[in-house]
């Protein structure tokens, strides 16, 4: 039995609000606006779509390589210090971007942006939120991720600034804004509720449960139920979730990098109109996240994720062969809903299945796998677009793969808790397996 702590707002929700703000900055200034930079950089320097896709893919490779190390550091030292370093690197990366004169300099700037975004954004924020929420985990992650979606709503503003004051001044100003606004937001982030006299979800045990705990009648401690990274990697669920997640990001990353170019070059819309389509997409993504927050903790996350994969695939096929603006709008609605509902559930599923004790490291190893989808999506679309002159072939290949990958989620059943009954210390307590 549990009782709700009354008289104040649970501190975890302040962390969710801070995460919303940080996600907003990262999405508005980089993730959602990268496609607008692609259009202007290609116009100014004449670089190929493959070269510009490679820069985005470099970001994802860096994040994947850093994932396990970053996860271990966050689990060991907490997310706040990591995020503060990341904010500074992220801001400097934008300032470096404003000064580029060659493709090599562009890749160097992207290198700093990738490290900064990884240390600042979704990864450490997710670890922090997972440690503060359990019963409302999907809801908290969905609300935090709304910041990413709302960042996309600002793409028309960023596109306007890019055209009015130029991409160099926009990039430099973005770097300043990130440091000035980001550092105060990271101050709100805390490691674990127990270290601050709090409990998960802000729900305390009832007097009866507390008395049972005193006489040793409660369920086993979390450390005996939570998976270590080694134990998690040995389960089929770890690989199935990671492969499904990576397949979804084939579509998401390709859309982030190439949608604006497809809409302007292949379909003939202006950059302003294309930016409005992105704004619509992310507005619907907000709706999807709200829906995910409502249903994510109530229904089977596997079935929800599998359904969203089919929506991703259908949406990408629609925009690949769109002949009217109405079809483009239907694409934006389907893709936005699928992304909004599915996105936060990925980490909620991992936390539900494997616990929070080693969540950072487990998420880090997962990042290394899903990186393959983030890297391949833009590259496949860009290479085939350079070869064929349109995005139809690339988008079709990615859509078919994503549709079939819905099977990964259907097969990803919750693993049994790790059995450590035969691995006892002399004191009779279970040994914790080494983290790899």
- As a percent range, the share of strand residues is under 5%
Main structural class: mainly alpha
How big is the Rg?
A: 22 Å
Count of beta strands: 2
Question: Would you spell out the secondary-structure blueprint of this structure?
Answer:
Layout: E1 2-4, H1 11-31, H2 34-45, H3 49-77, H4 79-97, H5 103-120, H6 122-132, H7 137-153, H8 155-164, H9 167-186, E2 203-205, H10 207-214, H11 222-225, H12 229-233, H13 236-266, H14 271-295, H15 301-320, H16 325-354, H17 359-388, H18 392-404, H19 406-411
Antiparallel strand pairs: 1-2
Helix pairs in contact: 1-6, 1-7, 1-9, 2-13, 3-4, 3-5, 3-17, 4-5, 4-6, 4-9, 5-6, 6-7, 6-17, 7-14, 7-16, 8-9, 8-14, 13-14, 13-15, 13-16, 13-17, 13-18, 14-16, 15-16, 15-18, 17-18
Characterise this structure.
With 436 residues, the chain is mostly helical. The chain is built from 19 helices and two strands. It has helices spanning 11-31, 34-45, 49-77, 79-97, 103-120, 122-132, 137-153, 155-164, 167-186, 207-214, 222-225, 229-233, 236-266, 271-295, 301-320, 325-354, 359-388, 392-404, 406-411; strands at 2-4, 203-205. A two-stranded antiparallel sheet has the order 1-2. The longest helix is centred in the middle third of the chain and has 31 residues, at 236-266. The chain starts with a strand and ends in a 25-residue tail after the last helix.
Short description:
The chain has 19 helices and two strands. 75% of the residues lie in helices and 1% in strands.
Essential attributes:
single chain, 436 residues, mainly alpha, two-stranded antiparallel sheet, 19 helices, 2 strands, 1% strand, globular, disordered C terminus
């Amino acid at each position: 039995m549990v009782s709700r702590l009354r008289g104040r707002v649970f501190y975890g929700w302040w962390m969710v609000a801070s995460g919303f703000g940080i996600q907003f900055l990262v999405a508005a200034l980089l993730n959602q606006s990268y496609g607008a930079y692609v259009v202007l950089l290609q116009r100014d320097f004449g670089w190929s779509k493959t070269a510009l896709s490679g820069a985005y893919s470099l970001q994802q490779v860096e994040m994947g390589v850093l994932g396990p190390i970053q996860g271990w550091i966050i689990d060991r030292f907490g997310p706040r210090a990591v995020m503060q370093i990341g904010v500074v690197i992220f801001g400097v990366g934008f300032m470096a971007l404003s000064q580029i004169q060659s493709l090599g300099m562009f890749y160097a700037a992207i290198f700093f942006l990738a490290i900064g975004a990884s240390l600042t954004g979704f990864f450490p924020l997710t670890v922090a939120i997972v440690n503060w929420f359990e019963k409302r985990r999907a809801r908290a992650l969905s609300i935090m991720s709304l910041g990413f979606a709302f960042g996309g709503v600002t793409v028309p503003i960023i596109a306007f600034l890019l055209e009015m004051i130029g991409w160099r001044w926009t990039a430099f100003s973005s770097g300043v804004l990130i440091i000035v606004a980001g550092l105060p937001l990271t101050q709100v982030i805390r490691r674990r509720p127990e270290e601050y006299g709090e409990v998960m979800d802000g729900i305390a045990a009832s007097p009866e449960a507390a008395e049972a705990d005193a006489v040793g009648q409660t369920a086993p401690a979390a450390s005996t139920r939570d998976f270590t990274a080694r134990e998690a990697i040995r389960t089929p669920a770890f690989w199935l979730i990671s492969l499904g997640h990576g397949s979804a990001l084939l579509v998401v990353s390709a859309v982030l990098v190439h949608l604006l170019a497809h809409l302007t070059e292949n379909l003939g819309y202006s950059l302003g109109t294309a930016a409005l389509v992105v704004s619509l997409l992310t507005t619907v993504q907000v709706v999807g996240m709200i829906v995910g927050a409502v249903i994510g903790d109530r229904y089977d996350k596997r079935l929800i994720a599998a359904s969203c994969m089919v929506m991703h695939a259908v949406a990408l096929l629609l925009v690949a062969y769109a002949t009217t603006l109405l079809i483009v709008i239907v694409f934006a609605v389907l893709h936005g809903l699928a992304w909004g509902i599915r996105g936060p559930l990925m980490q909620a599923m991992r936390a539900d299945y494997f616990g929070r004790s080693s969540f950072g490291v487990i998420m880090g190893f997962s990042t290394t796998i899903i990186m393959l989808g983030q890297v391949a999506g833009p590259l496949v679309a860009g290479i085939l677009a350079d070869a064929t002159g349109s995005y139809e072939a690339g988008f079709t290949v990615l859509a078919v793969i994503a549709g079939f990958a819905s099977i990964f989620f259907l097969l990803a059943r919750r693993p049994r808790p790790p059995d450590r009954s035969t691995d006892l210390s002399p004191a009779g307590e279970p040994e914790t397996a080494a983290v790899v």
